[in-house]
Amino acid sequence: MGKKKSSAQPKVNKLIDTDEDYFTERAEAVLKEIFSRYDIDKDGCLSEKELDAFAIGCNGKPFDASSKQDIQEAFDVNDKGYLTERGFLEMYFMQTSSEPQETMKDILAHGYDHSLNKKSDTTTDTASTTTNTTTETKKEEQQEEKEKSTVENK
């Protein structure tokens, strides 16, 4: 009989180069590519809306107000309080240093494999899909409120 595969956590690819005390080149490139997916307006920062889309793409829900405040206080942001690419990498470096499995989970959720290669060219653009879904949901909620208000006023 062959060896049984362990049911432990999946192997986490080397994300940090311990000699450099920073991401490996490949990990940095992947994280920058993920950042660019959510930087819809291409201003080099994630606005609150873009940050929410990113959080939904990773965890299925936006960051709460407290988490957003923590991000603004701990990582590089612009004068509007928007997370810069540098801040995004700082945030991931902190997470990866303590919980590399969490970073790998996020990378996998964005269409990469454990070797940090894209799984396929047909991977859905998570950021656009999430942003469009969020916008559609808000429009539907606004329409429902409008209809509810019209009914109540009659």
UniProtKB/TrEMBL annotation:
It is found in: Membrane. InterPro entries: EF-hand-dom_pair, EF_Hand_1_Ca_BS, EF_hand_dom, Miro-EF-hand_domain. Keywords: Calcium, Membrane, Metal-binding, Repeat. Residues 136-154 have a biased composition (Basic and acidic residues). One of its GO terms (cellular component) is ciliary membrane. One of its GO terms (biological process) is positive regulation of protein localization to ciliary membrane. This is EF-hand domain-containing protein. It comes from Polysphondylium violaceum.
